[in-house]
Every structure is written in structure tokens, then in C-alpha cells.
Amino acid sequence: MPRQKVRLYTPPGTLGGKLWGWRYLILRRVTQVGVLLLFFGTLHWGWKVMGQPVLRGNLSASELLGVVPLADPFAVLQQLVSGHWLHTTVLFGAAILLVFYIFAGRVFCAWICPMNMVTDLAAWLRAKLGINDLFRLSCSIRYWILVMALVLSAWMGVAAFEWVSPISMLHREIIYGAGLGLTAALGIFILDLLILKHGWCGHLCPLGAFYSLVGKFALLRVRFDDATCTHCGECARVCHEPHVLNLKLAAERGKVDFGECTNCARCIPICPENSLDFAWRWKASPERRELPTRTQP
Amino acid sequence: MRDRQDGSRGVPGMDDKRRAFLLKGLQGAAVAACGGLVWAHLLRQEAAASVLALRPPGALPEADFAAACIKCGQCAQACPYDTLRMARAEESVPIGMPYFVPRDIPCYMCSDIPCVPACPTGALDPKLKDVAKARMGLAVIDAESCLSWQGLRCEVCYRVCPVKGAAITIQNHPRQTSKHALFIPTVHSQACTGCGMCEDACPTEVAAIRVINPKLVQGRIGSHYRLGWKSDTPITQQFKPAESSSPAAEPVPAEAPAPKTAPGMDILNQGLEP
């Protein structure tokens, strides 16, 4: 099967080649820091566009340009489960983001969440230092924590995860002033570095679990081209949710078809065969290929 | 349980796979129960501190507020005086929610109440249009450190009060010759908004007038007390003379019409009517 897209070849040793290889990483850092900066600048430096504050609030709930409400759909879900009906502003805001994440998948975790910078640093350092896991843990435990958050919300009458969320502590205290909440980020750094590889984002975080469930319906996917893949395993080595790169399943479906995939795009530039790339769900189907084992539905 | 013929232990009729599955489920439930109880304990501890926090105007009753506040801080951003702050993890009030400390910055009771429409969840009730109807707390005076109670002319709290004459009044207590009269500031809960301007302005080293959650100080008379001298107090019980033991008792008087003035009114309690 002929290559459909030919990338401009850049020798990997040069600076340009390195930057090109890091393009998604750089973009992710820009959006992660940029979103925080918009919140911070609007609050502390009065950033305005057309007389309207740029982005008021924080990652729990905000208002874009004085009109568009945005809200964390998982926080809103917990509040609704706690038995309190909310105003339409925040329900509308949650719906907007829910629709966005159905389009884009679990991108919150890799592209927006400030904790990602903490856990990425821990993962990078852990690889450099060659630290092994203290124990193994199922990566589906997060779904049980998600269920527990909802059960406790209903029982205690408050949004259970929001009251203890290290993510919320982190962005709230970055935006509104630093306090002891930042030690939560330190705790997660230590967990990820010394105790369990990808411990927080890949095993425990119920917010990530929520977005993984939403991500099952994601329209933006990482397309997989089985014809060019040499099964070298580079992609799974850089992936923070390596079980999503089940290449047999990816070959069958033509894409990485897991809700846990954060669309972080670490795998895309690393692939020496360009077998992975972003594509819309409907364009990433293996129909043109014949798979002997595939049965017609 | 008993030893099987093959040496393994288990319930007869239950194969090892099923036993392992059930045991694993039980162990998972145990972990969930332990974790859930610790988590619930954290939440309960955190929520218990909510009586210490003064909330923005229009805040729902505390339990509803705690459920509805999404901790986004848009109210704090809307506040032109930076009165509202978002509770940090180490502070002794529930985490992440807006509150204020009047001695630092009180609520200046903006007539347009900008914090309320900024709230996206309705934790601050948008039905509040008149800021004088806000109930953020209740001012309480410590007579032992209040300058007015010592006989000095202070009354600063009375003068800075935005609902002056209703929330704080000055009561004149004349005393005997050769002593100053006392001009005592008195707080009235039906008008006090809890804005804390009095606490902010109080000249003593530690404020002698402080705003706190009314739950911590307010009592309640209870419906079983009858203030007999208030003519609007309904009389729900007709007192009858004690039943005499003799059968030829005097006849029970017919029910008399309610008197025009309250029955307990006499010279001793005149003037106590509101």
C-alpha cells in the first residue's frame, strides 16, 4: 500500500529535526501553560479582549470572554449526584466541554491538566534514573475510585472528589495564591517518581477515568496503518497508557480505539514508519484492507 | 471448610476458580470500604469547619452552599474590593470555597452585588437583589473589651454600620451622679447583614465587635414560652381550677371571650411591649 502522505524528511540529529520530533510536546506545553496563563493574566493583570475579561474562573468553572460558560463536567456530575440542582449557566458550561471532549477525546489529561506537567516530569526522571515500581496496581482501579466519588457525593451531600482533588488544589492555588494545596502536586510527583510508574494519571485519577469514559466516543483518533508498521514497539515505549497500543486491535480497527488514549501524540513523531497519525474516526477505518480473521458483523 | 481429598482446602462443591473469584471480589470490597470510610471522614472533617467561614452575600444555607459551590472563584474575581478569598488547603475553613475575614477586608455591600451574578452554579442566590437583605453573619460585641462598655465615648461600630440605626443602635444607660452614662452599641439580628465593617473599624487591639456565624451565638426562645403581656400571643390553654374532690363542685365557668388587653399585663411589665 503506497504511503498517502510523504513527510518532509529532516535528519533527526539536527536541531530542526529534534524540534519537529517534539512538535506535539511543545504544543501541549504551550496549551497547558497558556490556559493557566489566561486565567492568571485575567485575574492579576486584567487581560481583556474587546472590553471583556479573557478567561475568568479556573478549570472547575469559568467564563470565556464574558459570555461563554465552561465547566468541568465531572465536578458538575458529582454536584448533581449530591442532590443539588444547579443553575443553567454551569450545566450549559459542562455540556459545552462534554461535547468538545466527545470530539477531541481524553485531551484534557494531556493538553490542559496542569498535573500532567508534574507527572510528565516524574516519568522523565524515573526513566532517566531507572527506578522500578514498588508494586503493581491494576490501571482500572481509577474506575472504582470514580464510582466511589459518585457514591460518596450522594452519601455526604458534597462533590466528593472536588473536595480532595489534588488537580483542583493545584490550579486553584496557582491562580488564586499558593498554599499548602501545592503539596498535593508534590505528593503525586513522589508517587509517580518513586512508587508507581504513571501512578496518578494512569491508575488512580477519577477525573482521568471520567474523561476515558467520554473518550470511548471520541471522534479524533490516532490512526494506525498496519501495512507500514514493523512492530518495533517504539510507540508503546513512550506511551503513558501503553495498553491502548494493542497493535492487533489497532490493526483490526485502523485506529487506537481506547478511551484511555489521551491523544497526547507522543507515539506519532516517534514512529520511524509514520504508521501513526491523527485522523477523524470515520476516516480511520481499515476497510481497504483485507483481514482474514475479521468477520462481517 | 475441610481438607479435600487432593489436599486443598475449600468448601465442597466450589472449585478453586470460583473461590478465587469470590475472594477477590470480597477483598476488593474491603479495600473500597476502607478507602471510602477514610475519604468520607476527610469530607466530614472538612465540612465541619464551615461554621467558621463567612460566605459572600446571597450564599445558600451552608449545606446547600457546600454542595453547590464549584470552587471556581468567579465571585472573588468579581469583588471590586478583593474581599473574597478562596480557601487554601491549610486554612481552617472548608477547602476551595470563597469566604472573607472582615478584620482584613470587610464586605462593602455594593448595591449591585457583583459577586452574585458571577456565580455560575447558583450557590450565591441570584434572587438576592437588595444587599441589605444579605445575611453573611451576625455582629457580636464582647462587653469586656468594648470601649463603650467601659464608659468611653466610642460608638465607631455604630457610625460605620451601613444599616445604621437598624443593625446597630446606641442604648443610653444613665448611671448615678459622678459617673459617665454608658452609650452601648447594641446589634439587632433582624437587620445585621454581617458585612463586618464594624469589625474592620473597631479601634481595640483585637476587635471587640466581631462577625460570626449566627448559629454559634443565637439562641431560640421556643414555642412553649408565652409572653403573656404581649397581646398578640395566642392563648392556647384555658386554665381551670383544680378539680375538687367533692362531687358537688362549683360549675365550670363558660369560656370567657379573650380580653382586649393581654391577661398578664399589669404595672410590672408595662412598657415592655415592642
Give the gist of this structure.
The complex is a heterodimer of chains A (297) and B (274). With 297 residues, chain A is mainly α. Chain A has 14 helices and seven strands.
Structure characterization notes:
- With 297 residues, chain A is mostly helical.
- Chain A contains 14 helices and seven strands.
- In chain A, helix 3 crosses helix 7 and helix 8 (166-176) packs across helix 9.
- The longest helix of chain A is centred in the N-terminal third of the chain and has 22 residues, at 23-44.
- The model of chain A has no long low-confidence stretch (mean pLDDT 86).
- With 274 residues, chain B is α+β, with helices and mostly antiparallel strands.
- Helix content of chain B is 22%, strand content 10%.
- Chain B has six helices and eight strands, in the order E-E-H-H-H-E-E-H-E-H-E-E-H-E.
- Chain B has a two-stranded antiparallel ribbon with strand order 1-2. Chain B has a two-stranded antiparallel ribbon with strand order 3-4.
- Chain B is extended.
- The model of chain B has no long low-confidence stretch (mean pLDDT 83).
- Classes of the chains: A mainly alpha (297), B alpha+beta (274).
- Chains A and B meet through strand 4, helix 3, helix 4, helix 7 and helix 8 of A and helix 1, helix 2, helix 3 and strand 3 of B.
Topology:
The complex is a heterodimer of chains A (297) and B (274).
Chain A: H1 15-21, H2 23-44, E1 48-49, E2 52-53, E3 55-57, E4 61-64, E5 68-71, H3 73-81, H4 88-104, H5 107-112, H6 115-129, H7 141-156, H8 166-176, H9 182-195, H10 199-204, H11 206-215, E6 220-224, H12 234-238, H13 247-253, H14 267-270, E7 276-280
Antiparallel strand pairs in A: 1-2, 3-4, 4-5, 6-7
Chain B: E1 2-3, E2 9-10, H1 16-48, H2 62-68, H3 74-78, E3 85-86, E4 98-99, H4 115-118, E5 138-141, H5 156-160, E6 168-173, E7 182-187, H6 197-201, E8 209-212
Antiparallel strand pairs in B: 1-2, 3-4, 5-8, 6-7
